[in-house]
Amino acid sequence: MELIKLYANFEEAFFVERENRFVMQLKKADGQTIFAYIANPGRMEEFLTPGHPFFITPGNNGKYFYHVVSTFYQGSYILLDTIKTNYLVELILKNHGIEAFNDAQRIRREVTVNRSKFDFLLEREGKKPALLEVKSCSLCHNGAAMFPDAPTERGKRHLQDLELLASQGYDTYTLYLIGHKNARVFMPNGHTDRDYCEAFCKAKRVHFMAFCVNMTDPVTFDLSYVKEVPIDFETSRRLFADKGSYILVFYNEIPFKKIIGSLGEREFKKGYYVYVGSALHGLEKRIKRHLRQTKKIRWHMDYISPQCMKVEKVYLIRRPDRIEVGLARGMMEICAEFVPGFGSSDSEMDSHFFYFRERPYRTRAFLDLLLTYRAGNRELYHLPIAGSPAAHAHNPALLLLLGQVFPGIAYINIQNF
Predict the structure, then answer these.
(1) Which domains are present in the chain?
(2) Residue 4's pLDDT is what?
(3) Are 23 and 33 in contact (CB under 8 A)?
(4) Angle at the Cα of 20 (from 19 to 21), degrees rounded to 5?
(5) In this predicted model, what pLDDT tens digit does every residue of 199-253 receive, in sequence order?
(6) Do 25 and 19 contact (CB within 8 A), yes or no?
(7) Beta strand pairing status for 337-338 and 310-317?
(8) Where does residue 25 rank: exposed (0-12), middle (13-18), buried (19+ CB within 10 A)?
(9) How far apart are CA 35 and CA 119, in angstroms?
(10) Rounded to an integer, what distance in angstroms lies between the CA atom of residue 139 and that of residue 179?
């Protein structure tokens, strides 16, 4: 091991609330409630459940005494302080941790070319100068790493500029530094940012690479552990298709009763409701329709949205297969109640509209369900799935697992969105 300590010390604290993009409310082990600065504009929703552990260090300046620097998720410490990312990458480059750049004779940081500033310019004898843009990837669920976890116009512009500069005398690279040591595959997160995913797929002259790193504790990296992670380009090309399933989260402030077409009268309590739907043709158009103030009544949801309840969250899952029933089944298992018959006229489920007393997107069960369908079952990623079930008749456990994760699908290639 070759250890590098990024911070002198740390404390553990536990999640209470995210006040805004850069401030978290946490509770220390002694019960003290604090507010801490976090240098990470990502959504990081997979970490934002009550009591989730974060690691903090004393800040040297600024409004908040404590800074959030890392967390722990699915067996790995994960760096959250994006300010440290480029420092870490520079150490890796100088330590010859990335073979493609071992011949770099000079490494320059934060170089502006045309309208964009890039993280590194590497000068190499007898080769074109290399522009390297680094993206910090904290989202990794079941071994599938995805970037970004929030829409990034700046990230899309970087890709477009790198593609252009590749024709103007530069070798151009984007490096995704994955904080989770157990990452096994990387893909752009088209579920969250379709435009970035499309720019990724259209950047034919940009070299993409992904590496995962290992934190041995909340503040220490092992520089000898820099592992290349394969990029799933085939799945990436499908992740900006305008098709898939979706989850709408509503907040109902005042209890009411309402006649829902042929269903008759239904009661709606104060609290949160989750609707599961799909649109395998025109996903974004469907979402816009749900949010539109005026529309012709066509579906059960048209009686509710947006006049009766406020939409708090919209989650898209861009996959070409029919997972709506599987999602609804998963919601049925974790909800407090459901509205009988709602949204399920053509479904085997009793409902597609589910009641939660508290915010569902702050619960581990809801987030695990969402991310598992977005990331797919990566336990199977390196297995030879393509082909018919007969080709795998010797492995009934594999077929059973496929059926659980992809209900209603006879067989698939691994393209788990």
Answers:
(1) 3-72 (2.40.50.580), 83-236 (3.40.1350.60), 244-374 (no CATH), 376-417 (no CATH)
(2) 95
(3) no
(4) 140
(5) 999 999 999 999 999 999 999 999 999 999 999 999 999 999 999 999 999 999 9
(6) yes
(7) unpaired
(8) middle
(9) 30
(10) 8
pLDDT tens-digit readout, 277-286: 999 999 999 9
Cα–Cα dist 369/331, whole Å? 8
Q: Retrieve residue 155's tokens.
A: 């990230």
Token digits for 363?
């619960």
* pTM (whole model) above 0.85: yes
Q: Cβ(3)–Cβ(221) under 8 Å?
A: yes
Residue that is written with structure tokens 């941790």 in the block: 97
pLDDT tens string 149-179: 999 999 999 999 999 999 999 999 999 999 9
